[in-house]
Design a protein that fits this description.
This protein is 32% helix and 27% strand. It has 325 residues and is an alpha/beta fold. Helix 7 packs parallel to helix 8. The structure holds acetyl coenzyme *A.
Length: 325
């Protein structure tokens, strides 16, 4: 008997060249490196150049992932782009990436689940691949949150950054002796009662403007650890694995305190946690694939490793994925 699984063939990422440090921010708003680092673990973030759009970052990450996977554009049937900062209201930014790659077959669309977008996109791609919707998928997380920040609001503008990451997934029919590869389980959740705890105060159907990010930081913090650990416990139950079995925990990089508290609650050793929030800030849907690619590039993540992904963000949305690299 064979089982179809979505196996990761490779990863890639891209960061804009401009670095914005905490000291740079302190010149604009009343803040300090000490305040930001103590409460978030962030030292610096990247900011897209003028004219550099989400699709540009996504395209660079997609090309890097394809090269790392050794896959040609002709062999990609699906492109899923997780973003809350699309180039335009429509069409989907994914089609700009599709055109940039010179692909005219298959399908490309965006997934909008804010910071949880990459986990939601992996789950969507996994379901489509298993249902015969294609053989290979590019799953990208890309954001230019710098464009929706209120740069006079010190409680939010210090937290976010721009960037993109991507993976290539392939549907593989695994034999009975080798079914433990690829995406093993995903749990997705959302609860719209919390939609105004973290949102953008504009949009095509409400104000006709783009708007700025607004957040009740303490409220987000209060819910984050419980929500994250709930879905992680779900994927452990679904697979029979436990925190002791994983090689790497690659969480959404919102805040080092949320990551540390989640790892402690789950019993995950600190040396198994991949951290990039210090260098990237919170890049929303891009943060997990950026962190994954950083740990692949420096040799930490290796073939066969059991990897736990999780994210939580606006909506609220939250989710976890367990996969074998
Ligand atoms: N620099 C200096 N002081 C600041 C800053 C700043 N950048 N921002 C806020 N303050 C001040 C506030 O004005 C307040 O001052 P006051 O006491 O005189 O009124 C004081 O610091 C405390 O403000 P709080 O908002 O209560 O600070 P808190 O300790 O909760 O830290 C933070 C704020 C870092 C946002 C925290 O609530 C947090 O991490 N929340 C999670 C939010 C998050 O990570 N969101 C990301 C998106 S969702 C996701 O991806 C999971």
């Amino acid at each position: 008997m064979t089982l179809t699984r979505s196996v990761v063939l490779g990863s890639g990422s891209y960061l804009p060249s401009r670095v914005l440090s905490n000291a740079d921010l302190a010149k604009r708003v009343d803040t300090s490196d000490e305040w930001i680092f103590q409460r978030t673990g962030i030292r610096e973030r990247r900011i897209a150049a003028e004219g550099e759009m989400t699709s540009h970052l996504a395209l660079m990450a997609a090309r890097a992932a394809l090269a790392n996977a050794g896959v040609d554009t002709a062999d990609i049937q699906l492109i899923l782009l997780a973003t809350s900062t699309p180039d335009y209201t429509f069409p989907a930014t994914a089609v700009a990436v599709q055109a940039g790659l010179g692909i005219t077959h298959g399908a490309a669309f965006d997934v909008q689940a804010v910071c949880s977008g990459f986990v939601f996109a992996i789950a969507t791609a996994d379901a489509l691949l298993k249902a015969g919707g294609g053989k290979r998928a590019l799953v990208i997380g890309a954001e230019t949150f710098s464009r929706i920040l209120d740069w006079d609001d010190r409680s939010t503008c210090v937290l976010f950054g721009d960037g993109a990451g991507a993976v290539v997934l392939e549907a593989q029919d695994l034999g009975a002796a080798d079914t433990e590869r690829g995406v093993l389980a995903t749990r997705l959740r959302s609860d719209g009662r919390y939609q105004h705890k973290l949102y953008v105060d504009g949009g095509p159907s409400s104000t006709g403007t783009v708007g700025h990010l607004r957040m009740e930081g303490r409220e987000v913090f209060r819910h984050a650890v419980g929500m994250i650990t709930d879905v992680i416990e779900d994927v452990f139950r679904m697979t029979g694995y436990s925190a002791q079995d994983i090689q790497w925990f690659v969480p959404h990089q919102a805040n080092k305190r949320i990551i540390d508290a989640s790892a402690v609650k789950l019993g995950i050793a600190p040396d198994k946690v991949v951290i990039t929030v210090d260098r990237h800030g919170n890049t929303s849907a891009a943060s997990i694939p950026l962190a994954l690619d950083a740990a692949v590039a420096d040799g930490r993540i290796k073939r066969g490793d059991l990897i736990l992904l999780e994210a939580m963000g606006g909506g609220f949305t939250w989710g976890a994925t367990l996969l074998r690299w």
